[in-house]
Amino acid sequence: xxxxxxxxxxxxxxxxxxxxxxxxxxxxxxxxxxxxxxxxxxxxxxxxxxxxxxxxxxxxxxxxxxxxxxxxxxxxxxxxxxxxxxxxxxxxxxxxxxxxxxxxxxxxxxxxxxxxxxxxxxxxxxxxxxxxxxxxxxxxxxxxxxxxxxxxxxxxxxxxxxxxxxxxxxxxxxxxxxxxxxxxxxxxxxxxxxxxxxxxxxxxxxxxxxxxxxxxxxxxxxxxxxxxxxxxxxxxxxxxxxxxxxxxxxxxxxxxxxxxxxxxxxxxxxxxxxxxxxxxxxxxxxxxxxxxxxxxxxxxxxxxxxxxxxxxxxxxxxxxxxxxxxxxxxxxxxxxxxxxxxxxxxxxxxxxxxxxxxxxxxxxxxxxxxxxxxxxxxxxxxxxxxxxxxxxxxxxxxxxxxxxxxxxxxxxxxxxxxxxxxxxxx
Length: 426
Hints:
The chain is of the alpha+beta class. The chain has eleven helices and 18 strands. Helix 2 crosses helix 3 and helix 6 crosses helix 8.
């Protein structure tokens, strides 16, 4: 009679017990919850917000089964666990009314969180996350406007060509944007050949074709297929990254954000109850503005007295400090062609943001920084009509003194960090 060795039986029993232990969390299901996250780039959800939320619920006489502050790599949140959906709706209304009484600083959303006991969570015994087919939720199909992306890139390249030809002293009769390209008019063939030679290496994304005769010589440029494909891929990647960051505000477990076809993005949010809030967050738009700070004695005296002089606007800097900014906008996000996170080339441990501007934006930025050394320049994020200062560093030197035709910014030299501390340097 064959008998299994005792150690094999013990190993099988251990594997069975291990499997049963880690399958237990699926029996507890999920509990209704309210999640509080930040709605602004300049605001963080601090641990004190959890105490505020608990006080709000106590004042509204809404019982709960736990208020927890959580810190993750994507941001901080406060989650309130409740016994049923009726209490969940009441808690959401009370928290949102209190926290956003003055301004919409926080996103208060309905959510479902695991009801697994803490001792199981501590050993990483978590429930299986179900998809839309088993759990329900929200499905979005978004389309990226590739025509608009291509148009913006052509506008940027047209500005670069105009600046380049002016600096190279190549005369022309005008540069215009056609529906899908750039057109340049010349009076003589020599100038046209000079333009082709000047643009050959600098504007390498465009295929130039000569046409016309007499005094109406033309150069027609179209984006190369490889450049057009790279532009589309970059637009999709940027939108996917943006959507993924916004979904973090909803606290969805295992969301799906992926490309579908050449220009579409699928977003699936299993378990999301607040469809309107999800749609609002995903469809939110923001604009970037660069303005000069007025730190003159007159402006500071007016700020201390609670007044705003003509030609200035009052903003709040990160940390809550008030600032007076000039109404004139130096640059907007339309001049920004790319932004990449990285590190300061002089201090590898310090994070920095490397910006790429188009030709027009690069020229304006260079001139403004050259004329305002020692003054502060504010980067303002405007969302839903409300602007906040992300950072307002001091200008220590003019930027892009060389190679400004393409607006390139390869690294952040010393004392020229693009995004530093509120009182850092440019």
